Amino acid sequence: MRLGLSGMPTPHPIGERLPAVYHEDEFTQRFTSALDEVLAPIFLTLDSFPAYLDPRLAPDDFLAWLSQWVAFPLDDAWPMEKKRELVANAVDLHRRRGTTEALAWQVRLLTGGEVEVTDSGVCRWSEESGGDVPGDEPPWVSVRVRVADPGTVDAARLRSAVVDAVPAHVRVSLEIEQS
């Protein structure tokens, strides 16, 4: 969470806003300057609050909290630029969630490579409540990623991100190739 910094100037000094009789009082001016020091980080944070809500401008330590607001967990191993890009696109990714395009977009953001996603394309239902779903083959999704250096991609983390992005019952296969 954000911490206050000492010595910050205040845009609204309390001592100057008091009636003129208190401007000469040393105790009152010292007391209000102490309050100014406590309130200055709050005023400065509120003045720049819109920047806190923009993932591309938010302070690094605030970005993790911002990612929780958009329900997009971040991996500490990712570089800060990648984290910012993912949080900035999280709402659009959630809106398109469940589509091959959204999955390809997410993997592209994570790897920077060319992504090809194919799936079984199967949608099944039963006319009877609690009845067996027709068909034998379980649904699947296959993700192929082409990057310049496959060694730069953490396959386990990428697989975990793909598994989190698809429904729990869908089988996932992942291939990372050199482009």
The helix-and-strand class reads alpha+beta
Mind telling me the CATH class of the domain at 98-123 and 138-179? Answer: Alpha Beta
Question: What order do the SSEs take from the amino end to the carboxyl end, as H and E?
Answer: HHHHHHEEHE
CATH superfamily placement of the domain at 98-123 and 138-179: BolA-like
- What shape does the CA trace take? elongated
**β-strand amount:** 5-15%
Distance between the termini: 41 Å
Number of helices: 7
Number of strands: 3
Rg from Cα: 26 Å
Q: What percent of the residues sit in helical stretches (DSSP H or I)?
A: 40-55%
Report the major sheet. 3 strands, mixed
Which spans of ≥5 residues are poorly predicted at pLDDT below 50?
A: none
Under CATH, the topology of the domain at 98-123 and 138-179 can be stated as GMP Synthetase, Chain A, domain 3
Task: Tell me the strand order in the biggest sheet.
Answer: 1-2-3
By CATH, the architecture of the domain at 98-123 and 138-179 is named 2-Layer Sandwich
